[in-house]
Predict the 3D structure of the following.
Amino acid sequence: MKALSGYLLRRLISAVMAVFFVVTITFFLMHAIPGGPFASEKEIPPEVQKNIEARYHLNDPLWKQYVDYLHNLIRWDLGPSFKYEATTVNEIINRSFPVSATLGAVAVSFALIVGMLSGIIAALNHNKWQDYLAMIMATIGFAVPSFIMAGVLMYIFAYKLRWFPAALWGSPSQAVLPALALAGMPTAVIARFMRSNLLEVMQQDYIRTARAKGLSRQVIVYRHALRNACLPIITYLGPLVAGIFTGSFVVESIFAIPGLGQYFVSSISNRDYTVILGVTVFYSIFLVAMNLLVDLAYVWVDPRIKLNEGRKA
Amino acid sequence: MNLTPEMFEPVQSGAGSAEIITRPGTTYWQDAWRRLKQNRLAMAGLITIGIMLVMALTGPYLSGYTYSQQDLTMVNQPPGAKYWLGADALGRDLFTRLWYGARISLLVGVVTSLITLVVGVFYGGISGFAGGKVDEIMMRIVEILWAIPFLLYVILLMVVLGPGLKTIFIALGAVYWMGMARIVRGEILSLKEREYVLAARVLGAGSWRILWRHLIPNAMGPIIIQMTLAIPEAIFTEAFLSFLGLGVSAPMASLGVLASTGMEGIRSYPWQIFFPATLITITMLAFNFLGDGLRDALDPRMRK
């Protein structure tokens, strides 16, 4: 258990450092942009300019702004939006993140269920048509970027077949196409991963033992092989969640879904720096925390894993 | 028995007849090439990439239009004899723009992959070769950076540096070197324990010479695989950035820019997204097939 707490501590420090690093880098990058957030083509009277700067503390020295930002961040106050008067970044996140999270959860579940199922079917029918079909689908799914998937799905299912609405958010049917577009690539990755895991596990000695003992194929596959083959999938959960949430930037914009991804994209084109800063920090903390959880879950689930792995390769 | 001095003459070395090499030896690279040739998917990928390169170089000159030339009377023309793949919303020839976009996308892929190569090999090589505290610190830095979501970081750099081809190279290079550094470091860590390194050391070779002349060339296999797989990833990310309006600036085009402008008119002019989308997909497939094939060919240990 000593090794576990040491590992936990090391990972926690690493995660906190990563978040701190993101906050610092993001903060100074945002303030390094020439012209500042209120530079516009229109000539503003100097008094007005001064008032605006005072309102957002832009006339403070940079280090003071940075310390203030860190201080506010600890109290989870991300500051006001530059673009939308009277809206804070916290309000934007509170309002739109649930939408993104719902969409993300649907996509993650879809990717896990469909990906694992097709991987298992492919492995159990190794070198038969089911295997080839699943792997062709997975190869295509792997090569199609999410925004192209979104376009294709929208064209076929919303415009030609009219099965699902093409945009907006609210009813479950509106979640189908964006979730599919987001889940396409991760589903393909999971299917390939699951297939090769299961094929590898089926070669193991303990499976041969089980077979020699005379256990039925069902029992061997479901009780002995699948459990071990599923374990490594957990390691993919971190990148999976990260991929789906960053993928939601474009998918939400395409389907006009009022999620955090769309806000992020529009804040980029609006050059709304506090929103860019806040949302980047928020996403970083969220994804770093997810990664940490996933790693810990893996250590917890699989006792074979070596804790100081990666330290000395 | 009579012993004569002739009996004590050394026998002529038989090496001449027993050790004649009549067939040329196969080097590592010939061996790898032979294995690669047997992999049909990888060869299909290689040929596709070859065709794409040729078309990316010559395609923009074939139709007689330039990529920025507008004809506002021919806006959104469907594919036909005048415009082979149709025209876009500004009356520009899509055939020319498609291959011009492919050129930019391939350029982004290749340049990013080269930046990855230089930075990653340097960083990983030094980290692995130095070992000990230096390695510990250098790898801890990578570990921390690794935890940051890549795409956010790229988006941020693009916002700060402003859109354009050069900033795409910088932003993509700034994040993708880490994977390469990890791989090179791992390779060097195990290679430096080999006997030929000891032999070189005994013969008086300095650390720098051992690293560049002995270790890095022996780690070339994994490095090339990683470079091949970095190309589609960079093309992909560039397309993603273009979609957010952070790609190359107009009237330049990349496959991502074409796909994202095509998306706006998807309902009425589906061919405007169909061609760039197909080309992106084919590119991704080709590079991934080639990368997988190279992995099998260059790294015999990894083969099933």
